[in-house]
Amino acid sequence: MKNIIRFVILFISFSAFSQSFVEQIKSVKLNESRDLRIKLPASFKSNPEKKYPLILVLDSEFLFPVFEGNLHYGNYWDDIPEAILVGINQNKNNQRESDCEFDPRTGLPAGKGGAFFEFIGTELIPYLEKKYQVGTFKAIAGIDSSAGLANAFLYKEIPLFNAYISLSPDLQLGMEERIPKRLSELQQPIFYYTATSDGDLKKFQKQIKTLDQNMQAVKNDFINYKFDDFKNANHYTIATLGIPQALNQIFQIYQPISPKEYQEKIVVLPQDFVKYLTDKYDAIEKNLGIRMPVRYRDMKAIETAINKKERFEEYEQLAQISGQQYEKTLLYDYHMGIYWEKRNELKKAIKFYQDAFAKEPIGDLTKEMMMIKAEDLKTKLPKKDKLKGGKAKDATEQIVEEVPADAPTETPTETPTETPVEEKKSE
Known about the structure:
The protein is an alpha/beta fold. Helix content is 46%, strand content 16%.
């Protein structure tokens, strides 16, 4: 009975997140209507001002579900941001073959392929930007023939897409040399992922490995390149193996601070831990077009590094972030309280801990914890600074004594421990 209940819950959950829809777009370039399969983010309707990355999938009939599942899973763990997923159906009336037509003499889209190429750039993308909340970051994905067509967008003076997921691409005339040359010249962030396998078509394997060899000579900090050569896989399983790898490559910078990142990049720094944090979120905005508040768990990781290296002065910098982005919570008062406490300015620290009583709790920080810290610090004040005969010596001391009657008086919780973040666990 329990197994049946679990199956029903799983089925309902899968159905809930799989609700994509199909709509048609009339194309002047193609002189026909094309079917689009669209999956909008869960927060789309409730966030009318928010802009989302766009992932455009060619060969939608079989690639779209793989992307949809991976995006849902990654977003659940906050490893991948919410995105607008759009697929173009191409398998009706042999459209795929004509959509990916190239001129064998020039290696450029031609005939119906040229029209399809123009349809994407001049009709589809403007249509999606106008109707949906598409942000500045756009990715395109395809396999074999459609991957070859997607690569052609790199030839434009200003590439239309910021990321290219090229699964076992059928590389057209000169692409093995053209793509590396083009990527070496670009002065904007570009993600490029490609993959083959030991069971892939021999022609494709040879071309793709030549492309990879040429890419090894590209020295351009704007280019984020990754190549996979899967073992014990065939041409068709490359998609299921490569898509999660590509999404992880593209959105790695978006992911929360992991124990690995903390150990290898943060705690090894002598100082400037808060700068590392702000640089990380600036890079998310620059590369992915996503402006977002600093995650609470990332702040906790930085707190841990500050405490370990005893760079307590950085709590003041951290408080500037928490005061702006979490102004309704007690996080700012917590950071400033620790800052003054570590400087042995106990009366100032106590005031911030007490001010937190009027704010909202966040994470593991509670009002009770702030009151306990304030009470504990009061016991450490020099005798001359304590109240005598019920009369405060000055205004600051009077503030120190204004603790709610019901506030607890136990031993305070320590500042963050040395474990920055826990590994994610399956529920």
